[in-house]
Design a protein that fits this description.
Blueprint (H helix, E strand, L loop, with lengths): L1 E4 L6 H10 L4 E4 L10 E4 L5 H10 L3 H10 L4 E4 L1 H4 L4 E2 L12 E5 L13 E6 L1 E2 L15 E6 L1 E5 L5 E6 L3 E8 L2 E4 L7 H12 L2
Parallel strand pairs: 1-2, 1-3, 3-4, 4-13, 5-6
Antiparallel strand pairs: 6-10, 7-9, 8-11, 11-12, 12-13
Length: 205
């Protein structure tokens, strides 16, 4: 069972609709006790980094999530701010992140190459995918496109964790994977057949 972590931010229904179309069992989890049957976890997120981290901490689900991900090694997919929460911390706020994939979330505006670009980075963009990227091993052509909406990006400390990049003035880390832990800055739930295939590959991992 895929459990979508509903801690107060994130488009939960969009994921539910996508998994229904894929005929993959998925349910939301709003409390720790609803995570017990999970085989895979989706950590969505929108808005500001500190607000999302605060809500997750206050939800009571964080200790259970850490047990499931770090000890039992259940596959997890962080999406948008949910991906950024996997990092050590963010320039957008002061709270520490989960530190499941070491790195820092940085502002596009802090990079001279992107400072003159429209903010946020919004719309469709191509991915440059690493050949061995786990989420792309089945069902993808050479140039998958995904929908983005963000002003901050994940800067992985270890670039071997980077599964795909996209370009917005410069090449930024768009998808990260460390073993069973994955993060995508784009929105697979809004990315048509490419997003559906990514979620299907995750569900089968």
């Amino acid at each position: 069972m895929i459990r979508i972590v509903d801690y107060g931010v994130g488009n939960i229904q969009a994921f539910m609709n996508m998994f229904k179309r894929l005929d993959i069992p998925a349910e939301r989890a709003k409390r720790a006790g609803e995570l017990g049957d999970a085989t895979h976890l989706i950590l969505p997120g929108v808005g500001a980094f500190d607000h999302a981290m605060q809500l997750l901490n206050e939800s009571g689900m964080r200790p259970v999530l850490e047990e499931l991900v770090l000890v039992k090694q259940l596959p997890v997919l962080g999406v948008c701010v949910g991906m950024q929460m996997l990092a050590t911390g963010s320039d957008e706020g002061e709270m520490p992140g989960l530190n499941w994939i070491p790195g820092r979330v940085r502002s596009f505006a802090s990079r001279p190459e992107a400072a003159k670009m429209p903010m946020p980075h919004m719309g469709w963009n191509d991915l440059a995918v690493r050949d061995d990227a786990a989420l792309f091993q089945r069902g993808f052509d050479a140039h998958p496109q995904f929908y983005f909406l963000h002003s901050y990006y994940f800067d992985a400390r270890d670039k071997s964790d980077v599964a795909a990049t996209a370009n917005y003035g410069f090449d930024f880390d768009a998808i990260v994977s460390r073993g069973h832990i994955h993060g995508v800055q784009c929105h697979p739930e809004k990315s048509h057949h490419w997003g559906g295939q990514l979620l299907k590959n995750f569900a089968e991992s």
